[in-house]
């Protein structure tokens, strides 16, 4: 078994999928000869040719619109939006076309496309390279939304997404590309080569979309997170010494509600962590579900830790970023409530 970064795991997933199915095609801005801005597609064009891995104009709406047409024709496009911040020109295609093809055709057509996009901050990308738009997709019936937190999951989930008959938004936390960043920006980052979840099989495997994973067992409070915030939550639990159970959602839509209910019913407390802005963030949906399904088990109010309700500020990167200190305070507060 190889040790891979998340970049290498994502690349391996596309390589395996393209090798198994000639209908799988990869395209986007700079993904061909250059190998993508983060090098996630490096070598795929050389291996599979320019008809299966190719560059596009700088036109996100055109990228997704083309993918939808290809999917209706029978291909399985896996396209890259260079940063999640750039997906807004394609939002109409995603919500009005891709998400509705199965419904509007009464099942005669499906739309097996994957839209990969690096998401989140922590790299000093500022307001146009740091956004976390996952909640904009979870509100749309017909889309699936996946956010892996490690290389092993990234490969297995991406293969599952490529094989899925419906459109999947695959958000890749860019701060995790090279290591499990826990929010302690003042410390050296541990590479994936020294982390157990950096062990990634070279060959085929898949992980079912819609299944969460418990990353840390605990009995005092449930912390629900996804993407980079999983590692921040784990660090906060260690820093505070609180017996927290940390759930990695992995998939936001479909959501593993059973895993959430089981954990919160056991602990009686819940903290939800995400990097996106607080207002109308996906944490609000989780909080409502916890209140609806776990009300009589709760010993304290459900708390959320999230980004500010502002554009991502370049100058205050680590104040905006929900780090382990902020999550730790929430854990302490919910335990004292």
TrEMBL record:
It is an enzyme of class 1 (oxidoreductase). GO terms for biological process: branched-chain amino acid catabolic process; response to nutrient. InterPro entries: THDP-binding, Transketo_C/PFOR_II, Transketolase-like_Pyr-bd, Transketolase_C. Its EC number is 1.2.4.4. Residues 4-179 form the Transketolase-like pyrimidine-binding domain. The keyword Oxidoreductase applies. It comes from the Bacteria. Its cofactor is thiamine diphosphate. GO terms for molecular function: branched-chain 2-oxo acid dehydrogenase activity. Keywords: Oxidoreductase. PANTHER family: 2-OXOISOVALERATE DEHYDROGENASE SUBUNIT BETA, MITOCHONDRIAL, 2-OXOISOVALERATE DEHYDROGENASE SUBUNIT BETA-RELATED. This is 3-methyl-2-oxobutanoate dehydrogenase (2-methylpropanoyl-transferring). It comes from Aliirhizobium cellulosilyticum.
């Amino acid at each position: 078994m190889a040790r891979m970064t998340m970049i290498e795991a994502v690349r391996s997933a596309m390589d395996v999928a393209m090798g198994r199915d000639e209908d799988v095609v990869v395209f986007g801005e700079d993904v061909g000869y250059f190998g993508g801005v983060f090098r996630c597609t490096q070598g795929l064009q050389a291996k599979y040719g320019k008809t299966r891995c190719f560059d596009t104009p700088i036109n996100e709406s055109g990228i997704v619109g083309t993918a939808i047409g290809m999917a209706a024709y029978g291909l399985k496009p896996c396209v890259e939006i260079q940063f999640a911040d750039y997906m807004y020109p394609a939002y109409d295609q995603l919500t009005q076309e891709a998400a509705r093809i199965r419904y509007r055709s009464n099942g005669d057509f499906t739309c097996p496309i994957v839209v990969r996009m690096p998401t989140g901050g922590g790299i000093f990308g500022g307001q146009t390279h740091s956004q976390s738009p996952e909640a904009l997709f979870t509100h749309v019936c017909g889309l699936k939304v996946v956010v892996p937190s490690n290389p092993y999951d990234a490969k297995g989930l991406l293969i599952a997404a490529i094989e899925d008959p419906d459109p999947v938004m695959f958000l890749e936390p860019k701060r995790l590309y090279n290591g499990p960043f826990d929010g302690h920006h003042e410390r050296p980052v541990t590479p994936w080569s020294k982390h157990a979840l950096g062990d990634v099989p070279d060959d085929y495997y898949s992980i079912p979309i819609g299944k969460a994973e418990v990353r840390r067992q605990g009995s005092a409070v449930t912390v629900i997170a996804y993407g980079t915030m999983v590692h921040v939550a784990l660090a906060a639990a260690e820093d505070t010494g609180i017996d927290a159970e940390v759930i990695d959602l992995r998939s936001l839509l479909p959501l593993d509600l059973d895993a959430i209910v089981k954990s919160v019913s056991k602990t009686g407390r819940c903290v939800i962590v995400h990097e996106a802005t607080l207002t109308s963030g996906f944490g609000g949906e989780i909080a409502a579900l916890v209140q609806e399904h776990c009300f009589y088990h709760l010993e304290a109010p459900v708390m959320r830790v999230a980004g500010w309700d502002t554009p991502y500020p370049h100058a205050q990167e680590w104040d905006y970023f929900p780090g382990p200190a902020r999550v730790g305070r929430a854990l302490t507060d919910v335990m004292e409530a």
